[in-house]
Give the backbone structure.
Amino acid sequence: MKLRGLYGITDGSTGKELVHQVEMAINNGLAILQYRDKSSSEHTRLNDAINLRELCCSRNIPLIINDDIQLAKIIHADGVHLGKDDADIQKARRILGNNAIIGVSCYNKLQLALTAQAQGASYVAFGAFFNSPTKPEAPTVSIETLKSARQKIHIPICGIGGITLDNAAQVIDNGADMVAVISSLFSADDIGDTAKQFSKLFLEPVILH
């Protein structure tokens, strides 16, 4: 599966509302989905993950599970996204297999991305590029770091953190293959139209400044 385009991360909605929101986004160009829920019960998380897996599989959209390797394995998700306090890449690869998508948060550290690439990550994520309502305490990363990463990183790069329709092009034009969006997508008044507008940004020619 090609890792490029709008990368949606769920915002904590559950049940039918969650599936409906994701379906609207997929119908309008969502390319990758990450299921992220830090608050719900284990039972709710399992049910939601199963429902999202069924939806994503039917539309050929990769489903990535945030942090939880075992949940990814149970529902046969396409992969997992790991942060600094999560399991290592090799462990995830052993459990999920060689074809699994393993994403790694690298924050504002190019060296973390280089290490993740060497250890077999499928993609790396830098952020926050802008003030993030989801993680207001997140360290910020500069466009200059993204430019440097694009010269040295040969796997897909994802930009995250405060990305909106007003600033996403800046991240894409400087080397990001994906932009990860939470509130700007799933809290939008019209999720479908917002997904469509984000997706259009990837149809424009990429200009590296």
In short: The chain has a mean pLDDT of 94. The two ends are 28 Å apart (CA to CA). The longest helix spans residues 42-59. The chain is about 40% helix and 15% strand.
